[in-house]
Amino acid sequence: MNLRKIGEFGFIEQLSQLLRPGNDVVKGIGDDAAVLPRDKSTYALFTCDALVEGIHFTLNMPAHLIGRKAMAVNLSDIASMGGIPQHAVVTLGVKPTLPLRFYQKLYQGLQEVASLFGVTVVGGDTVSSPKALFVDVALTGWVEKKHCTLRQGAQRGDALVVSGSLGGSLAGKHLQFTPRIKEARALVKHFSVHAMIDLSDGLAGDLGHILKQSHVGARIFLNRIPIARSVTAKGFLPRLRQALCDGEDYELLFALPAKQAASAQAFFARHKGFPCLRVVGEVIRASQGLRYVFPDGKEKKWDLHGYQHF
Amino acid sequence: MNLRKIGEFGFIEQLSQLLRPGNDVVKGIGDDAAVLPRDKSTYALFTCDALVEGIHFTLNMPAHLIGRKAMAVNLSDIASMGGIPQHAVVTLGVKPTLPLRFYQKLYQGLQEVASLFGVTVVGGDTVSSPKALFVDVALTGWVEKKHCTLRQGAQRGDALVVSGSLGGSLAGKHLQFTPRIKEARALVKHFSVHAMIDLSDGLAGDLGHILKQSHVGARIFLNRIPIARSVTAKGFLPRLRQALCDGEDYELLFALPAKQAASAQAFFARHKGFPCLRVVGEVIRASQGLRYVFPDGKEKKWDLHGYQHF
Predict the structure, then answer these.
(1) At what angle do helices A181-190 and A258-270 cross, to 10 degrees?
(2) Do A34 and A74 touch, CB atoms closer than 8 A?
(3) Residues of A in Cβ contact (< 8 Å) with B136
(4) Thinking of the domain B3-147, which architecture would CATH place it in?
């Protein structure tokens, strides 16, 4: 069986079947972070995410931004659970030919964004990896049980809301995005967020996870998609395609009761540094699938794919 | 600055200086696992360890043993703290050219040893890594505060004890060793273990960590070193050198009051499946450094080095 044929998610599904679920696990593989028992009122969160040279970064990029991103993508996973990040361990696959200075800058970038969000790097492993540098961060966190937000839980009639703007991330944002920890915390504390995910593979791909796990469908209004300025394509549909499929936005996509959407938007507008919230769609019956409403008002399927890792 | 010049531990020290210690960390970088607050009577443990193709394994080796080892080296780190492992996340750096079957076997091996020790794999990340396969496991665990055993804490007069036999691990043991979780738990529950480490880089290297962090020296009796059958060198000193420097033994090295050594040995002898314990030395004053007692009774320094990763 060829990996490219089954795709990343087929691959993960095949492997997950080999793993035994633990009886002390609230939510295992299949969300942005694992949810585990912690105490009477809170859950522990646990996630990991790696960056590989040649795939997620090149050695031409500033080392401190590579380090920053390695930590930030994990922070983004904790954010999407509504959680607070806590402790990290870092595995560095070291190319021995690079100078110490390179790794120092990488660690500085990593520490910088960790500090911003109260995370302590408590350990790690350094291994030789002569063919390709890699950085893998594992991150723990916690969340109040009542605020824990999964990919499942979206309900028919919910508004689908996205933070910030989408697409064109490769122009720079993918290395410098702000993990939406504070924004997600504000959302889960003040609103009834039913389901949430961070957009790493593009809305067209990541929305699918919410729909599948919540057993619902969605209607997306294409003229409401917030297209980032860095999107370079010309023409409405090519630009939209880029916004929906580029990936690495690290914005939040969430579902909440439609009647709370306006007040969530107003709340974000009042908060300095918070991005805009845009209501991009609504949750519908599973049998209706994922439909896009085009600017001419016509509603149809659109064969878009999120970023595929292999 | 060249990495090979400063060596792995110089490198780790340089990077560690860039990280800010957290005020909620009991023991951060510099032990086999990080020690973190958990509840009134226990600590949380957190560690990670990666295997890289061409460095720690080759694709000629059975995939299930590669997976097994990726989990087992982490279990060994939790063992050396006296702890109980709990939850793991697994990052797989995937070579898309290998068949699905390969990864399934790798995961089977990983799950097999995880199950043996009550560990649940709760999440992970799969990334494309076309140039070199890698597997990185991050593992949490816990330990009673009174049983938590660090590298520091060895006291003058303590016996230095090693489990099992040493050297020649590349002949097979390095892929199939038993993480000494049960043995370590028995030790911390029934004896006053002052300091402990798992032998990954060879006794000659790893003993140094206990001495440095405990601010003590050691006298090692060379004729008491348990040399593994798989050691291939000829002649007493070459065989010893292999036993002390080969690395990847994943046995326990610990310090406990000399008067408890015999009863710990008897305890292990009574337990089916437990390895032999050997008293290989004693803890002395730091100013005396690390001394080896040769079979002729002469005591001198011996310039041995543990395995250097780069």
Answers:
(1) 130
(2) no
(3) 48, 50, 91, 125, 136
(4) 2-Layer Sandwich (3.30)
Chain B residues with CB-CB distance to A4 below 8 A: 96
A253 neighbors A180 (Cβ within 8 angstroms): no
Q: Which pTM does this prediction carry?
A: 0.96
Contact predicate A91/A127, CB 8 Å: yes
Sign for the CA dihedral angle at A52, A53, A55, A57 comes to positive
Give residue B257's pLDDT.
98
pLDDT digits (tens, 9 = 90+) for A220-274: 999 999 999 999 999 999 999 999 999 999 999 999 999 999 999 999 999 999 9
For the domain spanning A158-300, the CATH number is: 3.90.650.10
Residue type, A137: V
> B301 to chain A nearest CA, in Å?
29
The ipTM of this complex is: 0.95
| SS3 (DSSP) at B140 | strand
Do the chains contact at A123 and B20, CB–CB below 8 Å? Answer: no
Handedness of CA B183, B185, B188, B189 (dihedral sign): negative
- Are the C-beta atoms of residues B245 and B205 closer than 8 Å to each other? yes
Does residue A160 sit in helix, strand or coil?
Answer: strand
Would residue B179 be called left, alpha or beta, if left means φ above 0 and alpha means ψ between -120 and 50 degrees?
Answer: beta
3-class secondary-structure state, position B304: coil
Interface test with A, best of B31, B98, B136, B209 (most A CBs within 10 A): B136
Q: Compute the distance between CA of residue A69 and CA of residue A73 in angstroms, rounded to an integer.
A: 6
Domain boundaries, chain B: 3-147, 158-300
